[in-house]
Amino acid sequence: MSNSCSDEGKIVYRLYEISKQTSPKFERCTGISQSRLDLLTKLFEVDEISQTELQKEVNIDHAAVTRHLKQLEEKGMVTRRKNPADNRFMFVRLTDEGRTSISAYQDEKQRFISKVLNGFNEEERSLLLNMLTRIQDNVSNIDPND
Amino acid sequence: MSNSCSDEGKIVYRLYEISKQTSPKFERCTGISQSRLDLLTKLFEVDEISQTELQKEVNIDHAAVTRHLKQLEEKGMVTRRKNPADNRFMFVRLTDEGRTSISAYQDEKQRFISKVLNGFNEEERSLLLNMLTRIQDNVSNIDPND
DNA sequence: GGTCAATCATTGACCCGTCAACTAATATAA
DNA sequence: TTATATTAGTTGACGGGTCAATGATTGACC
C-alpha cells in the first residue's frame, strides 16, 4: 500500500508533465495546435454543423470555439452563416481550401502519434487505452463540491 | 496492425482529454493550480533556492516562474532577496505562513489523486507508471526538425 | 399577443503559458 | 582594464483557455 500511495502521485504528475511537454511539440511538428486541429477534424467529418453542436464534441468552451472559428474564417478555412430557420444558430463548414489543407495536418499528426507510441506493441496499446479510459471516467466523476 | 493504428490516435487523444479535464477540476478541488502547487512544493522541500534553479525543477519557463513568484510574494507566501554574493541571482523562500498553508493544499491534492486512480490496484499502477514514463521518453526524443 | 424563460453566440476580464527583447550583473580574455 | 560574452531576471506581445455578463432570437404560456 505504501508503494501504491507513492506511485499515485507520480502517475498523476506524469500525466501532467506529458501533456505539458506534448502540446508545444505537437504544435511545432504539425504546424497547428491540438485544439484547433481537433476542431477542424470534427468539421471535416460533417458537412455543416452549428457551433454549439461542434463545441460539445470538443474539449473547449463556447468562448474559445467562437474565437477559433473567427480566426479560421479570416484565414479562409471555414465559412459561417446563420441558420435561416433559427437565427440563433451559426452554421459552420469547411471551405474547399480548408478541407484540402487539413489532410496535410492529419499526416503530420499521424507521424507525431507514431513517435509518441514508439515501442508499444498492440497488447500494450490496448491495455494503456483501457487504463486511460478508466482514469478519464474517474476524473469525470469527481465532484468539486465534496 | 490496423487495430494498433486506430488505437494510436485514441491514446494520444485520451491523454490530451484527460489533461484538459483534470486541470480545471484539480484547481477547483484543491483551490490552487497544478503548476503553482508544483512550484510551492519544490520550495517546501528546500530552504532557499534561486529562481533559475527552481525553474529547472518545474515544467514552466522563466517568465512564468517570475510572474508566479511575484504574485506569491504579494500574497505573503514567499519572500525574495538578491544573492548578496551575486546580484544576478534572486533567492526565494517560503514564509512561515506559506509553509503552513501548503500542507492544506497537499492534503486536498492527495484526496484528488486518490479519486483519479480509484479502482487501480498496485500492479496496475506500477504498469501504468511504467508506460507513461516510456511515453514521456518518446516525447522528449521527438525532434521538431524532422 | 405580450411577457417571461431558454438558448446560441459574442464579448470582456482574467489566468496562465510561450517567445523574444531587454536590463543588470558578472565572468572572461585580449 | 576594457571590450565582449554569459547569465539571471523582467517585461511586452501574443496565443489560448475559463467564467460571467450581455445581446439577440426564439419558445412557451397566461
Automatic annotation (TrEMBL), chains A, B:
SMART domains recorded: HTH_ARSR (SM00418), HTH_MARR (SM00347)
Keywords: DNA-binding, Transcription, Transcription regulation
Gene3D superfamilies, sorted: Winged helix-like DNA-binding domain superfamily/Winged helix DNA-binding domain (1.10.10.10)
PROSITE patterns: HTH_MARR_2
Matching InterPro entries: ArsR-like_HTH (IPR011991), HTH_ArsR_DNA-bd_dom (IPR001845), HTH_MarR-typ (IPR000835), WH-like_DNA-bd_sf (IPR036388), WH_DNA-bd_sf (IPR036390)
HTH marR-type domain boundaries: 8-137
Coiled-coil ranges per UniProt: none
Name of this chain's protein: MarR family transcriptional regulator
